[in-house]
Structure formats: structure tokens, C-alpha cells
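Handout, section B. The chain below has 249 residues.
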Amino acid sequence: MKCKIFLLLVAVCALSCNKKSDLKAVVVSNKDTLNQEVFDEEYESEPEEVALKDLKFPTTGKNAEDFVLEPCEIKMRAEGFLNDDDLKDIVIVLQNQNNRADSRATLVLLQQETGGYKLQELSWEAVSPEYLEDGIPFYDVGDISIHEDKTLHISLEGMGPVGSRETVYKFVNDKLVLIKIGTFHSGAGSHVASEYDLVSGEVDHEVTNTLHDDWPSEHQIKKFKLKDEILFANDDPDQILEKLPHAEW
């Protein structure tokens, strides 16, 4: 009888130990599952958005593509002769392919006699963002070109009252200087085309009356004076325009 009781106690103890072991295994398994879920969430989190102004562009490169860092894409490109040598230069406008409201970088790359290109000028002001922060298009259409007189032309067109704007730059004493601004705006009953010569300090406003069938126009000539040169690298042409004389229309 005592032997049977002893064997029964041993069986009860063994069963109790197995239950505790199974419970511990469940806890460990749940803990491992929790850790796995946390790891997956961290791994799948979206990367932090990079602004173009946070980038550090290289000073030299074998070609234009060497200056195109992530997340940049080339929005506009022009080739031609900008300085006094016979080597063809490149100008590129870079846009953030993940954020069309981000600042756009305009890089002037001068070709070197030893090969490759040097980053001569960088502007965050020459070309405005394609979109405003609220998602409204600003200067959404643009083009750049280098003319035979070694001038850089940047043409931008916007929606509605923004109108269009063309800026002309030229190297003066190894600095790219803004020498002309052209604008066009349409309004109720008229439109105005303005040509600002920043070297001579004169503006010609051509005001056209669109209410008449023959669209008559008149020219308004005004004088102005700038205190300093307007530089490609530093100055925003739209802010400069706010200080210049406008047509009365």
C-alpha cells in the first residue's frame, strides 16, 4: 500500500513539473514573438526626408552626373561657352524627386583643361521651387540656355498672376552677374511686358490694351539705380523685381 502511495506522489510531481515547463515555454515564445514584431516595425519605418540644402555637392567631377546626389534629379540642362576659354560648360538645375516644393539648386560647371568639370557657381535663388508648400504650382515650366554671347538665360513660366520671368546672367570679373530681367503679366483688359536692363538702369514697360480689337500698345520708359551688382549665387530675382519701378496698369 505504501508503495502505491509513493508511486502516485511521484506521478503527481512529474505532471506538475511538465505543466510548469510548458507554461515557461509559452511565455518565452510570446516574448520572442513580441521582440520580432518590434524589430519588423523598426525595419519597415520610412526613411527621413532629405532636403537639397542639406547636401554637400562635390567641387569637381568627371561629368555632370557626378554632381547629381540623392535624392536629386536633373530638371533642366544647358551646354555652351560661359567664360573666356574654348571649353564647353554645363549648367544643370537639380530638383528633389521626392518633394517638388523643395528648393532647387542651379549648378554652373566649368570644363577644365585637364578634363572634367569644376563647380564654379551654386545658386538656390536663380530658379524658384516648382511648387509652393501648399501644393500650388509656382514656376512649373522652365528652360535654361547658353547663348552665343556667353550669357545664361533662365526662363520660367507660372500659373495665373505669377506670369513669366526671364533672367540673363553673364560672367563679370569671374562672377556670374544678373544683367537683365524680362517679365510678362496678363491682367483684366491689358498685359504688360517689361525689360529691365540692370547695367544701364533702364526699364521699358510695353502696356497693351486688349479691350480694343487692334490691341494698341504704349511704352513707358523709366530709370532706376542699383547700389550693388546682383549676383547669381546670392540674390533672388523676384525680390529684386519688388524694388524696381513697375508699370502703372
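Note. The chain has two helices and twelve strands. Compare this with the example in section A.
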